[in-house]
Inverse folding.
């Protein structure tokens, strides 16, 4: 009986945090897809307010939001531009902005190594680190996917030996 | 009366607790767990349907007619919905998204996604409920757009090697609009300015004359006649006069406006020109072209050659400013010069046509240029403002390099303000988005571009008027993203 109540409490807390994470990520994704620039401090403040209660700060805290814009590079574009090597027929990351505690979690889509302060990924046509791990769907040429990942650490439901490294993660593709 | 023993009373407690556990506590726990899971699944479902409807609305540009647009929207919605909802997560099954296109207000497209999933229950199945069906609905609308794209094609773009990148970025941008619904037009400018494409719904299928082909053939040469180009773009939107749509201008430049378009340059008495009358002219920091007065600002399409009507004048492009100053006394006239000069011009061109259709400037009761304010360019933009211009003793704006630059800067800033004020009055509410490219000496000042866009960073920001984006690309490689950002802003998806 005690175990049952313990389990229910744990599941309830985890579900509650999952729901909050999903809602925050959804709201952030809606803003990202409309072109809100999360490199700007004022817009980062909006995110922090949105995640109030989850302990996220602009550059630290218990949460991180990762914004990624993905597009498809047709081989024909590489050929037309005479680029070699080229990320032809690959999904690539063209924009990456991270708000919050970057050490908590990395993006599941990949880590481009040449991101400008504006979030733009330099040379995404040729840079191999810009290739996205994007198993979710096949984009058309010229089509973009605005991907928002949210991760929040939840140490309050850490039960050593039973439920460790707790955290809730949501990905939204708009 | 028979007494119940203590041992028997303990048994009753056990029985009551067992009954409570089976019929009250376990169902409550089950309900809490299953409803919690359902709540989490519904949050995910809502996010998936939102993503689907937004992506579907964004994909409307892929179709060339209503039928193919709906097919594209449906296919996109399904892809994004399924990508957001991986089957199996939290026992989710049968994810379904239905895309509909409800009747929309005029000039608007509305898309709705009705989504559902089934989730398996963990505890409630004891009570006979094996699964639950969850449903959500998301809607998005997109206003039709009338947009004039204004592209700088001055020589600095060629010098910096940015012209090809500009062409590609502009074409990608145009592909975000809907053929057959949105109206797209194009003005390009260097020293000259011209409407290369009138506002048209067939901007991608118009054959050799469509916008894409025109952009492919842009060559970058000449100076930077920004205010005239921006004003000309607004004239097209004003002439179309469709208040129900999103009216917008995308203005691109890589340089300070170093050219000014004047309706009545004052020709000096000592000029070698055959006729000494006042003339319409385009003056740059390195020369100029001019022609006879016309009913309205005529299309100026030549960047490198003097117009043949400049008979006898030293005035011409490809020369230096000294040749202009030999013929032209000042950029503007004073009241002492009288209102009407040689309005027929050297070629005897008709001077009639008070109502030219260029509705932006002050019109006289007779000739368009009668009583034209001395401090305004040919489109009605004031030459005064935050950059100082020098005048002579009679109040004329004198002709020198600094004055041309500063008058050009003022005219551009004032053009933005004038367009917003006039379009607010006629219900068009034109929003001006600005992209600046800063990879060349003489790059446009951020302050100026912010003023043109009425961005929040502008020192004269007016929150009561349409607020545009101002995006500054530090090199040509950022142009594609800059144009895309404006495209995202302009889609104006709402949920």
């Amino acid at each position: 009986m005690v175990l049952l109540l313990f389990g229910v409490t744990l599941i309830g807390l985890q579900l509650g945090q999952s729901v909050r994470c999903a809602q925050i990520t959804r709201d952030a994704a809606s803003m990202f897809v409309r072109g809100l620039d999360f490199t700007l401090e004022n817009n980062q403040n909006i995110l922090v307010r949105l995640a109030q209660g989850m302990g996220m700060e602009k550059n630290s805290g218990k949460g991180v939001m990762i914004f990624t814009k993905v597009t498809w590079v047709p081989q024909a574009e590489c050929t037309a531009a005479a680029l070699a090597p080229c990320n032809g027929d690959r999904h690539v990351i063209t924009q990456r902005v991270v708000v919050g505690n970057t050490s908590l979690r990395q993006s599941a889509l990949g880590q481009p190594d040449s991101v400008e302060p504006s979030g733009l990924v330099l040379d995404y046509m040729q840079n191999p680190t810009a290739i996205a791990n994007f198993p979710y769907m096949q984009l058309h040429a010229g089509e973009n996917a605005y991907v928002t990942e949210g991760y929040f650490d939840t140490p309050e439901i850490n039960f050593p030996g039973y439920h460790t490294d707790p955290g809730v993660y949501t990905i939204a593709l708009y | 009366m028979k007494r119940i023993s203590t041992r028997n009373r303990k048994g009753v407690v056990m029985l009551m607790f067992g009954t409570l556990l089976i019929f009250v506590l376990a169902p409550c726990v089950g309900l809490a767990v299953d409803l919690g899971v359902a709540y989490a699944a519904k949050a995910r479902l809502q996010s998936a349907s939102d993503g689907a409807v937004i992506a579907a609305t964004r994909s409307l540009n892929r179709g060339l007619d209503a039928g193919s647009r709906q097919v594209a929207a449906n296919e996109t919605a399904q892809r994004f919905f399924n990508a957001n909802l991986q089957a199996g997560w939290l026992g989710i099954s049968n994810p379904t998204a239905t895309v509909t296109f409800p009747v929309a207000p005029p000039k608007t497209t509305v898309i709705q996604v009705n989504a559902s999933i089934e989730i398996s229950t963990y505890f409630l199945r004891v009570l006979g409920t094996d699964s639950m069906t969850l449903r959500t609905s998301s809607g998005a609308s997109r206003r039709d757009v009338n947009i004039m794209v204004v592209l700088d094609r001055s020589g600095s773009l060629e010098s910096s090697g940015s012209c090809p990148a500009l062409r590609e970025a502009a074409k990608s941008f145009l592909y975000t609009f809907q053929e057959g619904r949105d109206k797209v037009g194009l003005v390009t400018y260097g020293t000259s300015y011209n409407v290369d494409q009138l506002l048209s719904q067939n901007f991608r299928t118009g054959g050799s004359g469509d916008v894409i082909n025109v952009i492919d053939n842009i060559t970058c040469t000449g100076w930077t006649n920004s205010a005239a180009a921006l004003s000309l773009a607004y004239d097209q939107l004003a002439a179309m006069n469709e208040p129900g749509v999103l009216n917008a201008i995308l203005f691109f430049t890589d340089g300070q406006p170093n050219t000014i378009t004047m309706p009545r340059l004052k020709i000096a008495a000592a000029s070698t020109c055959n006729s000494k009358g006042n003339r319409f002219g385009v003056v740059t920091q390195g020369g100029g072209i001019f022609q006879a007065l016309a009913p309205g600002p005529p299309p100026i399409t030549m960047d490198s050659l003097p117009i043949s009507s400049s008979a006898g004048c030293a005035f011409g492009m490809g020369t230096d400013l000294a040749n202009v100053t030999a013929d032209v006394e000042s950029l503007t006239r004073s009241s002492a010069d009288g209102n009407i000069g040689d309005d027929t011009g050297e070629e005897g061109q008709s001077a009639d046509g008070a109502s030219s259709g260029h509705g932006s400037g002050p019109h006289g009761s007779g000739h368009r240029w009668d009583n034209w304010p001395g401090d305004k360019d040919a489109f009605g933009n004031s030459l005064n403002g935050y950059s100082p211009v020098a005048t002579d003793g009679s109040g004329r704006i004198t002709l020198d390099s600094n004055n041309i630059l500063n008058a050009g800067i003022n005219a551009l800033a004032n053009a933005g303000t004038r367009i917003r004020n006039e379009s607010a009055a006629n219900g068009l509410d034109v929003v001006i988005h600005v992209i600046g490219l800063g990879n060349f000496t003489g790059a446009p000042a951020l302050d100026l571009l912010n003023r043109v866009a009425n961005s929040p960073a502008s020192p004269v920001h007016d929150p009561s008027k349409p607020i545009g984006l101002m995006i500054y690309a530090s090199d040509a490689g950022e142009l594609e993203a800059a144009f895309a950002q404006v495209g995202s802003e302009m889609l104006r998806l709402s949920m």
In short: Residues 2-173 of chain A form one domain.
